[in-house]
Amino acid sequence: MFVLRSPFHSDISKFTALYSSTLAPRCANFSEYNLDAKSYWQYYGFQHHMKLTPKSLSTILNVDDAQQNEITRLHTSLLGEYLTPRFGPFANLQKAATRSNTKDNKGIVYVSGKGYYWLTILSIKYIRDVLKDKTPVEIFVPFRDKHDNHCNKISLVYPNVKCSFFSDYLSYGQLYNLSGYQYKSLAMLLTSFNEILYLDSDNIPISSVADMFNNPNYLKTGFISWADFWKRSTNYNFYSMAGLTRFADPISSTPSVEAGQILINKEHHIRTLLLAYYYNYYGPQYFYPLFSQGFPGEGDKETFFLASRVTGDNSYLITGHITKSFGYKDKQGAYVGQGILQTDPSNFSKYWFLHINYPKLDIVSMFKKGFFKGDKLERKWTFIRNAQEDGKSVPFRQTLGQDFEYDVWKIMTSILDTDFNGFRLFEEIGNDELSDFVKAHLVRLEHSKLETR
């Protein structure tokens, strides 16, 4: 059952004020590189002619003594003073998280808004209508806008979905410096759920969400992170700055993180989430480059896992398994990736998520780019392979045992024709017109070969 306001909001506002003033870094941004980061890009699980050694990981990004000393000072303040029960707002948050840890207080959290609503709707529709999963949902939108009725409409169409607005909890001044990736940690702090599955809007669960909260690795640690395609590229100096010197080698050998999905228990990881919020608050200027050093996907992705290592909270990062890509081969035979497949943490042969981000299934953008033109449009989800080609691609549908591409496109027609009939989802083109294009594409999918080339 939803509450009208988050029990965490006033103390999160106090932490935001603290981060923006007392704990603002007093050193230059991390923006200068000694080495070309692209020369060091490496896939996890594959050999590369240049090793990511402590020396190379310490020197790709330029970190001078003043910067290192300042980040060290900030960690000492955070861990020794503010992220402890001696600090009132932290003690309040800890108590609120404990009170919220009731048996059924589990839910899915999205950050959405204009440009992302369609993707959020598509993900929720799949959860509700295909998986038949009733897990509650909370959608966070940055600012309340009287001209934006989409989020409230979503909550009316689908059962047990709530809309929340960051601007109801923080001042516009506090939100001014936040955008994009930086909102994710804030949403997980503000949600009234204690056990959280965070999902990017372009991410579709293909397994029961309710069952995910009973996964043995989650029950043991309370926090699961999924691996990205890439090796970890965190600047090696960070480990000493954050008091992790003796853990530097094992952490640096883990894969980088793909944070399109996060499974976390707030009560057990309130320090992790607050530190991740700090990392994201100053992410673009400081922690994103420090954690990724120009490797692909630089952003919030490392902030949660590394925060858990710094705080010493339990966490589980999937390692020893190469994250799979799915896509198709074009007319020239070149592989074109469409997204990321993420597995059950306890069973790597079972898939939990389709993170459809190459490109996103933004049908208006696809329409503008001519996606629906031509009579012989091919399937896009035909192969599964490692991001680095190793000759071991396998057919998509036979491997997963289901034609997910057809299923996802099919539910689009219900969204356009039934769920939001009479409500204009898009400014540029009407629901009816887009529905005609989607239906035509469904016919092509029905008659096309399931696996090509």
Task: List strands and helices in order, with pairings.
Blueprint: H1 9-20, H2 54-59, H3 65-82, H4 88-100, E1 106-111, H5 117-130, E2 137-141, H6 150-157, E3 161-165, H7 172-175, H8 183-190, E4 195-199, E5 203-205, H9 209-212, H10 216-221, E6 223-231, H11 237-241, H12 248-252, E7 255-265, H13 270-281, H14 283-292, H15 303-311, E8 316-317, E9 324-329, E10 335-344, E11 347-355, H16 363-368, E12 383-386, E13 394-395, H17 396-400, H18 404-419, H19 431-447
Parallel strand pairs: 1-2, 1-4, 2-3, 6-8
Antiparallel strand pairs: 4-7, 5-11, 6-7, 9-10, 9-12, 10-11, 12-13
Helix pairs in contact: 1-4, 5-18, 8-13, 13-14, 13-15, 18-19
- Our Rg estimate from Cα atoms comes to 22 Å
Q: How many helix segments?
A: 19
Relevant CATH superfamily of the largest domain: Spore Coat Polysaccharide Biosynthesis Protein SpsA, Chain A
Query: What is the CATH architecture assignment of the largest domain?
Result: Alpha-Beta Complex
The structural class is alpha/beta
**Major sheet description:** 7 strands, mixed
Task: Tally the structural domains.
Answer: 2
The proportion of residues in beta strands is 15-25%
Q: What is the CATH top level name of the largest domain? A: Alpha Beta
Q: Provide mean pLDDT, rounded.
A: 93
| CATH topology (level 3) name of the largest domain | Spore Coat Polysaccharide Biosynthesis Protein SpsA, Chain A
Distance between the termini: 50 Å
Q: What shape does the CA trace take?
A: globular
| Low-confidence runs | none
GO molecular function: alpha-1,2-mannosyltransferase activity
Subcellular location: Golgi apparatus membrane
Pathway: Protein modification; protein glycosylation
Membrane topology: Single-pass type II membrane protein
